[in-house]
Amino acid sequence: RKDAGMLSYREHLPVSQVVVGDVDRPGSEAKVSVGPLRCQGDRNYWNAASFVTSSSYLHFSTFQGETSADISFYFKTSASDGVFLENLGNTDFIKLELKSATEVSFSFDVGNGPVEIVVRSPNQLNDDQWHRVTAERNVKQASLQVDQLPMEVRKAPTEGHTRLELYSQLYVGAAGGQQGFLGCIRSLRMNGVTLDLEERAKVTLGVKPGCSGHCPSYGMYCANGGKCVEKYNGYSCDCSRTAYDGPFCIKDVGAFFEEGMWLRYDFHSPGTSMKDLVSRTLLSSADPETTAPDLSLSKEELSFSFSTTKSPCVLLYISSYTPDFMAVLVKPSGSLQIRYSLGGTREPYNIDIDHRNMANGQPHTVNVTRNGRSIVLQIDHYPPTSYSLPAASDIEFNSPKALFLGKVIEIGKIDQDIYKYNTPGFTGCLSRVQFNQIAPLKAALRPTNASSHIHIKGELVESNCGASPLTIPPMSVATDPWHLDS
Questions:
Q1: Which cysteines are cross-linked by disulfides (predicted)?
Q2: In the chain, how many domains are there?
Q3: Which site in 91, 101, 118, 190 is 20 to 30 Å from 291, CA atoms measured?
Q4: Checking DSSP bridges between strand 428-435 and strand 299-308, what pairing results, if any?
């Protein structure tokens, strides 16, 4: 039987690297040959164990690495430190550990005193993603590499001891009362031999075979864009990139607005030079800190919930350093209007939802997604509706400046309808407001670094009055056949 295919992922190749260590010895020579390859699956590559308590470990026979040691493995964790593996002698030892969230250490002693090599990463290593560690030691030198970071090398002394004499068992995980490793280790190879972590984990308390984690099974419970984060005995939901709160990111964060009250979220950091600002917030899931005034958006996502009995009013307005703007209005009739002005046309492009009275005191949700010229609008639980900007319209939202809730307080000329609907202002409830990665109400009510972007007039009172949008508006007395006069 024959099979064929293309292997495009380097680490799936049968032979991805040939490394010859301990070279430059006078008179030494070596020969390496690769014969017919037998396909045996990727069990060794994915042979993994999960360490779920800080005192759990696996033990193996003493590591035989007297004159040369070649160790490699992958790890992933959300812990900031922990011992990967350790083997002890009377005074000699060899150890690999995560010293901090950005540091991996390789240390050993062959009788000349402890030697430590540290690789420092510019990025967090406890991000619950796989990272590769390669450590080597021979009579000439020792080296350590993490992922594709530069290799750290330490030359061996020209005189002194060269043999690593170990007597204890090899411990993978906690050893000697130290802070054990919490997370997953896979594909652990020591001098060319893959240790069977899975088989040993089956009979060891505190260690589980494999590395599926909790998130593949339970991550769906992190709702509304919440991120599942692996914990040692479970998981948690990171809601920081959402407009929601609570253990599963399902609790609305909302507030009641009295007449004349407003909230402004500035997209730039206070006191930061405009020239030095780096756009991150509106385009990616990076920290919601800054956005440059020359930034142009070709797509955005907006979602929020509201309830009011007053019309007309401005629910939300996004200004810019140019004439561009975006607004969501309640018209005098109580109907909803989405208003885009991106340039290229004489008048703003309007999407009118005329068939419903949205100022009926009931909660309503609004979801607007734009990608270039295409706009998708969903109101409450009704099916999404697609719209398109006019052919003459620009598709770039140039230089976003600030987001307003409740009322627009902007210096300079604003659209005539915005000005007309802006007085006396919105009265009612707004909740779960999110524009791309920005959640202005949550930033105001749950102080974080982003709270410095917030400016408020009036007292912002937290409320969940916009939490439950209706699919169908309530029947009037005239059309309700079950209505009984009191």
A1: 184-211
A2: 3
A3: 101
A4: antiparallel
pLDDT category of residue 303 using cuts at 50, 70 and 90: very high
Q: Mean pLDDT check: name the lowest of 35-44, 295-304, 363-372.
A: 35-44
Q: Are residues 184 and 241 in the same domain?
A: no
Q: Residue 453: give the domain boundaries.
A: 253-462
pTM: 0.62
Q: Are residues 109 and 196 in the same domain?
A: yes
Encode pLDDT of 142-188 as tens digits. Answer: 999 999 999 999 999 888 898 999 999 999 987 666 678 988 999 99
Note whether 166 and 65 are within 8 A (CB): yes
Residues 325 and 181 in one domain: no
Same domain, 313 and 370: yes
Measure the CA–CA gap between 75 and 89, rounded to whole angstroms. Answer: 25
Q: Report the range of poorest mean pLDDT among 37-51, 237-251, 335-349.
A: 37-51
| Structural domain contains residue 2 | no
Q: Do 177 and 233 fall into the same domain?
A: no
Per-residue pLDDT tens over the stretch 50-82: 998 888 899 999 999 999 999 999 999 988 999
